[in-house]
Specification:
heterotrimer, A alpha/beta, B alpha+beta, C mainly alpha, A: 2 domains, five-stranded mixed sheet, 41% helix, 18% strand, elongated, C: mainly alpha, Helicase, Ruva Protein, domain 3, Serine Threonine Protein Phosphatase 5, Tetratricopeptide repeat
Amino acid sequence: MSAPMANARTGSSGIKWFGGAIAAVLLAFSIFVATRSPASNAIEASPIVEHVAPAISGPTVAGGRFALRSYRGKFVLVNFFASWCASCAIEEPQLVRFSKSGIGKVLAVDFQDENGPARVFLSRYGASWPAVADPNGQIAIKWGVSAPPESFLISPSGVVLTKIVGPVTAKELRILVQVAKANGY
Amino acid sequence: MNAELGRIGILISLVASLAAVGLFLVALLKKRVGAIRHARSFALLSVFGVTVSTFAIERALVSHDFSIAFVAQNNSKETPLLFSISGMWSALQGSILLWALILGINLAALIFLTRVRKLEAASNWALLVTSVTMAFFVAMMFGPANPFALTQGTIPPDGLGPNPLLQNYPLVAVHPPLLYLGFVSITIPFALWIGALLAKDRSGFYRELARRWAIISFSSLTLGITLGAWWSYQVLGWGGFWAWDPVENAALMPWLFLVAYLHSAFAEKRAGSGQLWSYASITSAFAFTILGTYFTRSGVLQSVHAFSSSTLGDILISFFLLVCLVSIYLGVSNFSLLSQRRPGSSWSSRTNLIKINNVVFAAIVLIVLLGTVFPLFASALFGQVITVGAPYFNSYVAPLGALLLVLMAIAPVVPYRGLPWRSLLERLTFAGVVAGVVGAISVALGLARPGLFGVFVLAAFSASATVEQLVRRSFGHGINPFRALLARKNGGLLSHLGVVMVAVALASATSFGHKGQLRLNPGQSRDFFGEKISYLGTKTVVTPAQTSLVALVTLNGRELMQPAISQFGSYTQPVGSPAVSAELTKDVYLTLDQPPTRVGGPVLIGIIIQPMIDWLWIGASVISLGGFLSIFGFRKIQTKRLRDGGAGFPDGLPHDDEVERDKGPSGFPLGDVDAEVAGSGGFRR
Amino acid sequence: MVTSTSEGVSQVDTKKKRFLAGGALMAIWGAIAVVILGSFIFLVLSSTTASSDAQRVVRLEGEFKCPSCIDLSVAESSAASSISIKTFIKNEVAQGVSDAQIKDQLVASYGNSILFTPPKSGAYLVIWALPIGLVLLLAFFSLRSMLSQKDAALARGVGNLEDAVGEDENLSALGVSGDLNLSSIPLGDAISSNKTRAISDTRPDRPAISRSFSRSLRRATSSTKRRYLALFGAIFCIAGVGLGVYSFEQSRSQAANLSLESRELSQAIGYTYSGQDVSALRLLSLVLRQDPYQPQALAYQGWLLFQAGVKTKAPTLVQKGEQLVLEAIAIQPHYADAHGFLSMIDLYIYHETTQAKKQFNEFLADSPSSTIRTDLSAAYKAALSAIPGQSAKPTTVP
């Protein structure tokens, strides 16, 4: 029926090519998508890793002042925490253990918090390291912090070695420092 | 017990659907008619199996049977009954079961509706396609997504409970089933089209059945998406409703294709325009439901809704590819059949306008798809994690949306045979005047943003053109105007009105809103853009399932609002629940951003004022209602116009009613079909 | 052609009573156009004036993604990190820092993922340009198809016919029904040679079944056919039950915990091969915390510790590494990478070439992925050649 009209428009080979092209694109798309590793919550490399650590200096929650500079020459764990953060409480004993082992120093940054609750929080776990107050989160921004707890391992020369999102453990920190030493830091 | 029952159900379903597939193939390829009845019985048996499994999982959820891992993870003894029931679709495995159940219901409905057409190849091909899909989804529950996997080790005394966000608002009980109903039922129109092509069926029956089925899908999907947006607005606490999240896009893309399909199917039915667009749209809609499922179930994209990644991904993407390749192959090999059409006589014929409309919809889908998958390409090509956020989508979709508003005003007044320029202008004079007046008023009232001005003017244009059409169709024909208004053919116009409401609501809510935070001491009041917010104090509400800290706030001294922060069972992460005061003109939305740190201390209350946002939900419901009206409305209106030949418009040019009637519809209502077939054939067994 | 069609129709129109005279219509539409376009142009021109600080802050807040949320901009979220960034933007804007500098500072600490939309520069321009190209392409094709459609109509002389009818003044004497005739019936006749008939053919006056189909219906009632069907069903059922039992057992053994680990593992392995040892170790220990007996994680952690031990000449680390790799092999005896690692470790600690050769062959027998194979093969050759008196030919590397 009405064949002339239907076929007058497009040569059948043209439409075959078109269909083939779309099929090829879809095939390529499917293979591409299927071979992606699941990207949800991908742990993204922090741009400050292997760069000189941004400066931290300012009043501490205890009332003094402190600067990251003064730890130059030692491995330092910069730990962003807050008294309102639940998983910070989980990692605190591990930080204490790391600090006591003498492998490296700990410098805490109190993210978007008040000094009083932070002092209570630290003393509860017997944390004796300096905690710089960051009530507006402006230090955290320089370090690319999204949500506490986040920690950064700093080499003795002041280079950021790695960023750790979520609670740390003393054991893993020890290994990290050992490996960093092995790599010449 | 429940696990065994559920497994047996799935087993029955898988075996039966595979048997149905095999028997349909035997019937169709070997021309063994005897196999048809068995094939249909097996297909029904597969539906039965899925129903048994659903019963089993619901029974397990309601009776807190933690020997099933799925129940242990998504239910706890404290979970209220409603959220126990909705627990079925609050995680991956159960949601696949829900999918299979709804597909099963559709399959049974298709078997029922084609019961007198058993012997037509097309109906059996369609059932074959549906059965394959059924087998595919049931098979997923065998391996990677088994909802009846047993808890390993000792059975826990209490389960984890559903995700806090899923036990916070009763809408979760309604939203996913409706969304799935829309999503899954697209399978049937797809199957019908494939069936009609494979059988080279020329009767309009299957296309008409597909069209109607697609309208139901469209209406349910519209409602489902809207309820999802509403849920997001009521629960997530950021005051928004649409974030262009991959899951939302996954639901939106099939919806857009459905809309395109409905328009071209309409043009095809009324004016005999080519079927190519309809075919392309409906197959794409189905393919995109699978692709969307892939996006949400494989975990390949970052999304708020993403279920955990699993081996489901590979299976789903393969099925997507299969659907695409089959559709393309059939489309190409039937190209001459699909592209037959009557010639349009003028660029302004409605057929052409609908074609432009479809092109716009296709463009929107491609842009949404591009934005959704681009992060994958970026990480593959540049090795970087990037975000494609709302501004990207908005900046491209908004102008195309404005174009759609214009088309929506013009197309309904243009007959399929075209219209001279003069008459077009004449028919749109009223709408043009209204648009001009609205534009002038909004500038006079100090509207400063050109984009917003554009939306208001176009919305006024579109709305007045649509209303004028409705009025002309309903009044002055000597019949009950109410009856005339609720005619089937007005369904489309009603949906258009809904679209205008949505456009206005979107523009107003996102442009004229105010957002801020108030720090308030108990007993203190503050004004925020004309709203007086008084903070009275907090109270703690403890129920078995949750512990909430509720702030008591009055709005303008009258309405008591209770934004809260709740902690659910074993979940440590607290969840905020906003309080919303909804009015037709504006919503006031309060969140408890920071609870008091000490007794009697200040709280931080987040406040968002969004004007007209309720019209978003109303408009979306009207869109959906339009769909239902075009199926369940009054069938025929014997208008005076038809008797004496006068047209609805004073210019005397034909309207689509006249044009359509002398050609006769290519399909016809289902009720008639059954009667006719029953009368004509002796094939009933 | 089309325009003349339109004129033909409108000539008939003029015979009817119009509710607007031609001039009035044009005047009204002219006024509408002036009002709308005029206001629009006025608004566009007036809105391009320089934005205030407050407007800049609002705009910038919408351009950054809340770092601790999914899908939300800083403006939309009240998470702690968003509040920090809001404060930052407000301070910088107050100090007169330019938009580009603010953006650069945030990108320097958070990376490109802090931007709510991809940057409009470099390779990312693709995503911004593609939609525009796409719309233009679609517009071009649809326009072309519409034009060709018009040509088709023209070739069939439909337009001519309509013109002729339109110019026929007598037709309007038919009165109200005239326009109905004009628009549909003659046209329908004109094209009835093709499409119209096709449409009327489509009335399903009887179900479209082939004769042979209905004939075979009668045949199918014979008992042999029934037996055939029963057999078919039985085979399906048995096969289905077997498959089902098998699958259920499978799904039972490997129920949960598949997802998160594998993601972190693959990333850790990626880090290992790109030399980011510290990050890799961090991820591996995360995996091992969830599942202490994860063989891949154990093997890779062992391998990294071994390498660190070699570099720092720390025998404890080397031994720990070996131990972990051995543990991995104990858990999963046919794990290719672990055998590869062990062969290297054997070679290093004991200078034990035969043992290493055996391990390496086992590694190759497990057919690992090609990248790991080439990597390790190269390392193995290098290690062998470092031992005096050994030729670097343990086996042929495919």
